[in-house]
C-alpha cells in the first residue's frame, strides 16, 4: 500500500471540485483531485447554463471570457414559468449564459491543466479515516492519500458525507422525470407540451439564441424529457422511456440508440453540517434540489469560491481553524434558500387548476418592478448577503466591479482579484504595513454611484476590505480601529 501526502484531497472532479482545486492552487496549496471518470466527458444534458454571479466569480479569476465565448447569451433567468429581463441589473453579466455542463467542465479542466493541478482519473475514494492531524483517504486502487483536509465534492450520493455520518435531512420526491439523449426513427412533435401529468418536451441538444428566442439546430443529438405518471427511482431503461413517450405522444417515434438515460426528481435535501472536523462538503454533496431555475451547478461553484481561500489560509497557517466555521455559517443559509425557492417553484409548476391559479397570481406579482428585481437577483445569485453584522449596506454583499483609477491608470476591480488575494480599496490615503504580505493595498479614485441589484444606489465608503471571493468584509475610514480587527478576523494576525 502506497501513501502519498497532500495538503488537500478533493473527492470529485465536477464543476465544484474543479473550481475549488483552482482556488486552492492560486493560494499555493498542494491539492489533488480524485475523479472516477477517465476524462471530463459528461454524458447527457445536465446543467444548462451559468448565472450572473457565477460569471462574476469566473471574471474575478480572469477566465469568464472563455465561458461567454463558448455559450449563448440571453435573458434566461426565471422563476417557475415566469421569465425575467435582467438587462438593467448593475453587473457586466446582466444575462444568463446557455452552456451545457459538458462544455463548462471542459473549460474548467483546461484551466486546471494550465494551473498544473493533478487529477487522479479513473479512481474513486472508497473510504477515509481522520484523526487530529489529518485524514487517510483510501482509493479504489488500494492507494492511500494522507491529507490535512478532505473535501467531498462527490455529488448527491456522496460517500464522503455518508462516511462522515452527516445527516442529509429534507424531503422525498413527489415528482420525477426521465431524460435521454437519443435518436428517433421518425420525425417527432418538437417543442414543449403540458398535460395532466406535467411538462414534456423533445428538442435538439444544440441551439442558438437569436433576438431573445431559442432556435434549435436542425441536426445533432435529440434530447427528450418526460414527466412520469408516478415517481420513479433507480437507473431508467430504454423500455421505460419508450413506454413513457408512448403514454404522452401516442408513439415513441422509434426511439433508439440512447447516448444517456437518467432520472431526476424534486427530492430536496441539505447536509445539516458542511464540516466534520477535517472533512468538508461542497456542491451536491451538501445540497440537492429540483433543477428549477438552473441553480445547482452555480450554487456549487460559489460554495467552492467561498471555501477555497478560507481553507487555504488555514492550511498555510495564516488563519486559525475557526475561520472554517464561517463557511458553514455563510453557505448553509444560501443553500437553504435555494431549496426553499425550488420547492416553491415545484408547487407552482404542477399542472392542476389550483396550481395554475397560483402561478397566474405569482406571475402578476413578479411583473411589479420591486418584486422582479428581488426575485431575479435571488435567482441569479446577485442578492447573496452574508450576515457580518450591522453596518454599511455593502457589508457581506458582493463588491461591484468598479472602474477605478490607480497610480498605474484605470482598471477594473475584478481584474485586481485575478490572483485571489484580498484587497483593501482605499479611496483616501493609508498604510497597511503589518498585513502587506497577504492583503493588496489599492489606493484609487472612483467617480460614480455604487449600485447593488434590488437595493439601488448606496453611499460610497472611504475604504472597503474585499475578500478573495469578492464579498465585502469591512467598510469605514482607514484610521478606524475596527480595520485591524477585521483584518485579523479574516486574514490572520499581523505579521511580526
What is the element layout, followed by pairings?
Elements (H helix, E strand, L loop, with lengths): L2 E9 L3 H12 L4 E5 L13 E2 L1 H8 L4 H7 L1 E3 L3 E2 L2 E2 L12 E3 L2 H15 L3 E3 L3 E6 L4 E5 L4 E9 L6 H6 L3 E4 L4 E8 L7 E5 L2 E7 L2 E4 L2 E4 L5 E6 L10 H12 L6 E10 L2 E4 L3 E2 L2 E3 L5 E2 L7 H20 L9 H25 L3 H14 L2 H11 L23 E4 L2 E4 L10 E4 L13 E4 L6 E3 L3 E3 L4 E4 L5 E5 L5 H10 L5
Q: What would your notes on this structure say?
A:
It is a single chain. With 496 residues, the chain is of the alpha+beta class. The chain has three domains: 3-171 and 269-379, FAD/NAD(P)-binding domain; 176-265, Alpha-Beta Plaits (2-Layer Sandwich); 403-491, Glutaredoxin (3-Layer(aba) Sandwich), CATH 3.40.30. It is built from eleven helices and 31 strands. The strands form nine sheets. Strands 1, 2, 8, 9, 10, 11, 21 and 22 form an eight-stranded mixed β-sheet that branches. The radius of gyration is 23 Å and the shape is globular. The two termini are 43 Å apart.
Task: Jot down its keywords.
five-stranded antiparallel beta sheet, Glutaredoxin, alpha+beta, Alpha-Beta Plaits, 496 residues, globular, 28% strand, 28% helix, 31 strands, FAD/NAD(P)-binding domain
In short, what is this structure?
Helices cover 28% and strands 28% of the residues. The protein has three domains: 3-171 and 269-379, FAD/NAD(P)-binding domain, CATH 3.50.50.60; 176-265, Alpha-Beta Plaits, CATH 3.30.70; 403-491, Glutaredoxin (3-Layer(aba) Sandwich).
Amino acid at each position: 500500500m502506497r501513501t502519498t501526502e497532500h495538503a488537500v484531497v478533493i473527492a470529485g472532479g465536477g464543476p465544484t471540485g474543479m473550481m475549488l482545486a483552482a482556488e486552492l492552487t492560486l493560494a499555493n496549496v498542494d491539492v489533488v483531485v480524485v475523479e472516477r471518470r477517465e476524462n471530463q466527458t459528461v454524458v447527457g444534458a445536465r446543467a444548462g447554463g451559468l448565472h450572473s454571479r457565477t460569471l462574476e466569480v469566473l471574471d474575478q479569476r480572469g477566465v469568464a471570457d472563455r465561458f461567454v465565448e463558448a455559450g449563448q447569451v440571453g435573458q434566461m433567468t426565471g422563476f417557475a414559468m415566469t421569465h425575467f429581463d435582467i438587462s438593467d441589473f448593475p453587473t457586466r453579466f446582466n444575462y444568463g449564459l446557455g452552456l451545457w455542463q459538458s462544455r463548462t467542465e471542459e473549460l474548467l479542466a483546461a484551466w486546471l491543466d494550465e494551473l498544473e493541478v493533478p487529477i487522479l482519473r479513473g479512481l474513486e475514494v472508497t473510504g477515509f479515516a481522520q484523526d487530529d492531524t489529518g485524514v487517510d483517504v483510501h482509493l479504489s486502487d488500494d492507494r492511500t492519500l494522507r491529507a490535512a483536509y478532505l473535501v467531498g465534492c462527490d455529488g448527491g450520493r456522496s460517500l464522503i458525507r455518508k462516511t462522515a455520518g452527516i445527516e442529509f435531512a429534507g424531503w422525498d420526491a413527489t415528482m420525477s422525470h426521465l431524460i435521454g439523449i437519443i435518436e428517433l426513427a421518425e420525425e417527432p412533435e418538437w417543442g414543449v407540451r403540458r398535460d395532466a401529468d406535467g411538462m414534456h418536451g423533445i428538442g435538439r441538444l444544440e441551439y442558438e439564441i437569436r433576438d431573445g428566442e431559442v432556435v434549435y439546430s436542425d441536426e445533432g443529438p435529440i434530447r427528450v424529457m418526460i414527466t412520469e405518471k408516478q415517481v420513479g427511482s433507480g437507473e431508467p431503461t430504454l423500455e421505460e422511456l419508450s413506454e413513457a413517450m408512448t403514454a404522452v405522444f401516442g408513439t415513441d417515434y422509434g426511439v433508439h440508440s440512447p447516448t444517456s438515460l437518467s432520472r431526476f426528481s424534486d427530492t430536496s435535501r441539505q447536509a445539516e453540517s458542511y464540516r466534520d472536523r477535517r472533512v468538508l462538503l461542497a456542491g451536491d454533496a451538501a445540497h440537492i434540489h429540483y433543477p428549477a431555475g438552473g441553480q445547482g451547478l452555480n450554487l456549487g461553484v460559489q460554495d467552492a469560491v467561498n471555501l477555497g481561500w478560507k481553507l487555504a489560509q488555514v492550511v498555510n497557517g495564516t488563519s486559525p481553524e475557526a475561520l472554517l466555521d464561517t463557511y458553514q455559517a455563510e453557505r448553509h443559509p444560501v443553500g437553504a434558500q435555494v431549496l426553499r425557492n425550488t420547492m416553491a417553484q415545484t408547487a407552482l409548476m404542477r399542472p392542476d387548476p389550483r396550481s395554475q391559479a397560483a402561478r397566474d397570481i405569482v406571475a402578476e406579482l413578479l411583473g411589479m418592478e420591486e418584486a422582479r428585481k428581488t426575485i431575479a437577483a435571488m435567482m441569479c445569485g446577485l442578492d447573496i448577503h452574508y450576515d457580518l453584522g450591522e453596518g454599511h449596506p455593502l457589508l457581506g454583499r458582493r463588491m461591484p466591479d468598479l472602474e477605478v483609477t490607480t497610480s498605474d491608470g484605470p482598471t477594473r476591480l475584478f481584474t485586481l482579484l485575478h490572483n485571489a488575494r484580498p484587497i483593501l480599496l482605499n479611496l483616501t490615503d493609508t498604510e497597511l504595513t503589518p498585513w502587506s504580505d497577504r492583503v493588496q493595498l489599492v489606493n484609487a479614485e472612483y467617480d460614480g454611484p455604487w449600485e447593488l441589484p434590488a437595493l439601488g444606489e448606496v453611499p460610497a465608503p472611504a475604504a472597503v476590505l474585499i475578500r478573495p471571493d469578492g464579498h465585502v468584509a469591512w467598510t469605514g475610514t482607514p484610521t478606524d480601529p475596527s480595520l485591524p480587527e477585521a483584518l485579523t478576523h479574516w486574514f490572520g494576525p499581523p505579521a511580526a
